[in-house]
Design goal:
With 125 residues, the protein is an all-alpha fold. Helices cover 83% and strands 0% of the residues.
Length: 125
Amino acid sequence: MQLVYVGLGGAVGAIMRYMVSLVFSASNSPFPFITLLINFIGAFVIGLLSEYSGQIMPIDPKALLFLSTGLCGGFTTFSTFSLETSNLLSGGKFGLAALYATLSVLLCLLGIFFAKFIVSELAAH
């Protein structure tokens, strides 16, 4: 049954990722802003879930599987990030590749820390 929760969450996350990419599809920038945004949002949400479940109210393990592993896993785009970074490198855009990889890691970590801070503040009140 756990596979069903992960699979359903993954399907929802993948659909959401596609919808976000449609909304921002007009961007013709060589820099993959959409993937960066999606990964930041996913990192922020998984940070919220983790901290909320740990500090405010435990979340049912089935719901966590659906939301964290499934939805956030299906929504975020590490494989797309890897391909886009590879494409930038292959295209000789070494500076953009380095910027993208660095921003991806730093912003996603920032998303996690920011989410945890928000939940910690809410839990304290």
